[in-house]
Amino acid sequence: MFSIEFITLEAADPAAVTGLYTDAFGLGDRIRVRASEEPTTGFRGFTLSLTVSQPATVNSLIGAALDAGATSLKPAAKSFWGYGGVVQAPDGAIWKVATSEKKDTGPDTGKIDDVVLLLGVADVAASKKFYLDRGLTVAKSFGRKYVEFATEPGSVKLALYGRRALAKDAGVSPDGTGSHRIAIGGDAAPFTDPDGFAWESRVPAGR
Hints:
Elements (H helix, E strand, L loop, with lengths): L3 E8 L3 H10 L6 E5 L4 E3 L3 E6 L3 H13 L3 E8 L4 E6 L5 E6 L14 E8 L2 H10 L4 E5 L3 E4 L7 E6 H8 L5 E3 L3 E5 L4 E2 L5 E4 L6
Parallel strand pairs: 1-2, 4-7, 8-11, 13-15
Antiparallel strand pairs: 1-13, 3-12, 4-8, 5-6, 6-7, 9-10, 10-11, 14-15
Helix pairs in contact: 1-2
Protein name: Glyoxalase
Organism: Actinoallomurus iriomotensis
């Protein structure tokens, strides 16, 4: 089955964000950071989501991220779907931390259940077909609005969302130009999708 083994984020100052991803979020090798001066302005066209079991864990992870230098885009709060908040890391990457639960059922565990990469695309149906043609299979779909692909357990999940809808969910303007400053690493051969997101073959951990 298809899998994303890691995400590489590009930053002008990798040292400024490494602590956030490794210490505050505890993501280990699933998130890597490399230096880049590629120009980019505004929304970079993607978000990363951490799904957890209850509100206490949402609050704990968002608090740790803010302490590590992230800024708040949406304070943690209840919604129709559950409870969550959105922060932006110093490198510009946007992170949503959320749970489907609205009440705590126990103490904060600090455990992240899933890491999800959401790509904001121009045409969900066209991008869905592109990825299906590359051998991915759909795990969840809501018409032309949202698609989530099946992945190996423990790997980063991949989902497609309309760019404007994704930006609205993150609390930012959909406008943006330049590099996405992200590379998706896994077991696929290198390619670039219709919205310019680059996929790279796996490389040794720590490189």
